[in-house]
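User: Can you predict the 3D structure for this chain?
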Amino acid sequence: MATLRYPYLISKTLDPIFGIAIGASAFYLYERREGRVEVHTLNELVKRRYKLEMAKFRNQPTAEETISESQKQKRLAEAAIFENTTK
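Assistant: Here is the predicted structure, written as structure tokens:
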């Protein structure tokens, strides 16, 4: 008995898009179920990345470039505390 071979699930161009969409939705649902820290969600990451890219596109300084040295030290300390509590 001969087996049928299907080279694509949907089509050559839609298969990668379908795979990325399924992967992104699975990750998003995982984040919602696990209840991650507010700053570390996929939505926050995408928003932060979008703002950074738009600032580069407009040749404007980013938020990281405009904060003072004391604010940078405070953020580093908060990140260190967060890392210690999650281990």
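Residues 27 and 54 are 25 Å apart (CA to CA). The chain has one domain: 15-86.
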